[in-house]
Amino acid sequence: SIPTGPAGPLRFPDNFGWGAATSAYQIEGAAKEDGRGESVWDTFSRVPGRTRNGDTGDVAADHYHRYAEDLDLMRDLGLRSYRFSISWPRIQPDGTGAPNQRGLDFYRRLIDGLHDRGISPMATLFHWDLPQALQDAEGWESRDTAYRFADYADAVFRALGDRVPAWLTINEPKTVVQNGYLIGHHAPGRQDPDAAYLVAHHLQLAHGLAVDALRATGSDSRIGPALNLHPCYPAEDSPQAAAAARLYDGYENRLYLDSLLKGSYPADVLADLGPRSRMVQGIRDGDLAIISAPIDLLAVQYYTPIYVTADGGTEHRWATSEAEWQQIYPEGMYDILTRVTRDYGPIPLTITENGLPTPDTMGPDGTVDDAGRIAFLRDHLAAAHRAMAAGVPLESFHVWSLLDNFEWAEGYDQRWGLVYVDYPSQRRVLKKSATWYRSVIADAASERPPPGQPGPDGSASVSR
Ligand code: PNW
């Protein structure tokens, strides 16, 4: 009976966008087809020791060839919204210049297939697969890359803009900054804090320039950023831990939220970086006005809370999933959604990622029992529902992920999908969580009140 609250089944709005998410490099494969260029992940995944088992995205879930089958899966699940990403090196193999028509054609077929099945497309422009040619020209450390991104965005908007009602610019700038440039376990594998925050600024600038590019086409599609937000709690009850958690929050959340929605970087973070830092030196007059161009929706990705100790370290408080960085804490979903609405106003929100990896195997009867994923999603949906009841304008929810896929440095060992992928055969098998999610969506539809007779609050209930 899911998701059900203490007072019975939870009611979600009729038009709630039940969805699932993927990204290009993680599912497409076909790395050399139809004129696709190399991305930083093609390069990085080939460096010995960088990914588990030396896995690469060369084949992945072979979605480039199997997209029609995957579209049918989405229809069978009853999805209303599908979030995917467009591969920059398919559109501009070298990161600049005239768009590659065969690359655009693939996304046109995918988008048409979504419309044919009544599923609303939500497209991310950049989910980490920077063209290698731009990386060779200093990548996101170069301000020019932000302008190259705006050109790429413009080409995509002109070709596909009329068919995509919702665009997302940059997926998780923070993860590029932290994993790509601080820890170094994502492409391009750097460990350079001074570079990292200059990269943050250029990613924010790229976002703002892409928003301008969409407006310049006269499109009435919506656009926004996709941020992974981490609620940061003091690990203990002391003023030192409270202060450390506050600064940690600055780096995790306010650096991105404040620049986008308040038109300024947080003063505590700038002070901590220092006036001689490459980032502070790299901010030019007018940049913050570009970065804070009005957006239509804010995409939030929630996975885990962070507990910050007095010395600025972190601690685990809750059970982790197979991803050692993830603590399972549904209440954090409520906290982050209500906080964004409280601190930044009633901007329309979408959850574009929420999920966990589970140790899935196919049983002898051909089923995949991922009970842990059902419990996780049920509890996070319930928390999102409570946030909506508290006034958060949340319009959709996308499970990460539709399919098992290439989980970056973890390769194919971590399985995040609603749908199991048997990689040797590329066969798709609905996990129990997929059939559960299908029934959640179907019940929401079937319990919709008859036309003209809205429920007490104009919404439909969800129960089983
Ligand atoms: C996201 N963290 O990455 C990405 O958008 C997806 O491509 C990825 O597959 C998914 O989450 C699962 O990892 C994250 O350390 C990476 O908190 C790291 C973190 C969060 C999200």
Q: Could you give the order of strands across the largest sheet?
A: 3-4-5-6-7-9-12-13
User: What fraction strand?
Assistant: 15-25%
Label the overall shape. Answer: globular
Bound molecules: 4-nitrophenyl beta-D-glucopyranoside
The percent range for helix content is 40-55%
Reported for the largest beta sheet, the result is:
8 strands, parallel, barrel
Q: What are the segments in which pLDDT stays under 50 over at least 5 consecutive residues? A: 453-464
The average pLDDT value, as a whole number, equals 95
Helical stretch tally: 16
- What's the N-to-C terminus distance? 4 Å
Instruction: Work out the radius of gyration.
Output: 21 Å
Q: What is the strand tally?
A: 16
Counting helices, strands and paired strands, the structural category is: alpha/beta
Enzyme class: hydrolase
EC number: 3.2.1.21
Protein name: Beta-glucosidase
Family: Belongs to the glycosyl hydrolase 1 family.
